[in-house]
Amino acid sequence: MVGRTATGVLLAAVLGIAVLGTTLAALPTAPTAVAPTLSVDGDRLVLTHRAGETVDVRSLDVLVRVDGQPLARQPPVPFFSARGFRSGPTGPFNAAADPRWEPGERASFRVASTNRPSLSAGAHVTVELRRNGRLLAVLSATA
């Protein structure tokens, strides 16, 4: 009887450790803390990383909306030339640059006239930044 009890206790301990380990592994990691800003000048969107952690833009998704409507083509950062955008984005959004977006650094891109909806004066522009699917920031400005 003592052998069965010891085996049962050992089995319960092993099972408990396995469950705890699985639960801890499934816990989400701490979110990245960033404080970017957005400005719009004509067809150029400028994002400035004001404070927080350095962000590798290769893991960043950028979603642009104009007056609530998503652009038909979204910026595939980092890039140099992409459909729906004028060539030569700046800062870490440029594929030839260091992909680490650091506090104090600007990144910009220009929306091509072929992308829809078009950027017109007075349009409300919203940019959503996600890293590995997690929302980092939602920014807005007036064109």
Can you describe what's shown?
The protein is of the alpha+beta class and 143 residues long. The chain is built from one helix and ten strands, in the order αββββββββββ. The chain has two domains: 30 residues; 109 residues, Immunoglobulin-like (Sandwich), CATH 2.60.40. Strand 9 and strand 10 form a beta hairpin. The radius of gyration is 23 Å and the shape is globular. The N and C termini lie far apart (79 Å).
Measured between the Cα atoms of the first and last residue, the distance is: 79 Å
The 3D shape can be described as: globular
Helix-strand pattern, N to C?
HEEEEEEEEEE
Major sheet: order of its strands?
Answer: 1-2-8-6
Reported for the largest beta sheet, the result is:
4 strands, antiparallel
At the first level of CATH, the class of the largest domain is Mainly Beta
- Percentage of residues assigned to helices: 10-25%
| Number of distinct beta strands | 10
- Binned strand content: 35-45%
Task: Briefly note the CATH topology name of the largest domain.
Answer: Immunoglobulin-like
Poorly predicted runs of 5 or more residues: 9-25
Give the tally of structural domains: 2
Count of helix runs? 1
Determine the mean pLDDT: 87
What does the radius of gyration come to? 23 Å
Which secondary-structure class do the elements indicate?
Answer: alpha+beta
CATH architecture of the largest domain: Sandwich
